[in-house]
Amino acid sequence: MLAVLVALAHLGAMAIVLLVSPPGWTVLAMWSLLGLSLYHTLDHHALRLGPRAVLRLELRSADVAVLGLRNGASLRACPVRSCLVLPGLVVLALRCEGQVFSRGLVLLPDAVDAEALRALRVRLNLRASTEASA
Asked: What is the pTM of this model?
């Protein structure tokens, strides 16, 4: 499902580039960048085929996660910086130790065991309500 949404968004952006009609070399440059973005997003986030793609998420406490990558590495001490929890979608922003940039993780119902996703949503909602009341 995520792969389809990502592909549609990128193809829509490519169509908009054609509609705007910038000079010829600009179209080529924009399409190249959009193509690279599409490849990277599908490889790392949607299809999770890249060596640094996240295959396992383990919440150790309310705020700290451990990520298991496709290449066998494990990223420890990844605090959850922010999260968006909806009935059919969970988005996590994680800042792993030793990493310069935050890592986004998008979870849709078709990518995760239903019971595990429900438990994660409950845990993240409890975290959010605790932060709001404090």
From this structure: 0.80
Determine the pLDDT at residue 24: 81
Total domain count, the chain: 2
For the residues 68-88, what does the mean pLDDT come to?
Answer: 92
Q: What is the DSSP string of 13-50?
A: HHHHHHHH---HHHHHHHHHHHHHHHHHHIIIIIS--S
Tokens for 26, please give them. 């600009």
**What are the backbone angles phi and psi of residue 19, rounded to the nearest 5°?**
-65, -35
46, 66, 81 — which closes off a domain?
46
Indicate whether 36 and 71 sit together in one domain.
no
Residues 58 and 85 occupy one common structural domain: yes
Query: Residue 47: phi, psi to the nearest 5?
Result: -90, -20
Do 41 and 70 reside in the same domain of the chain? no
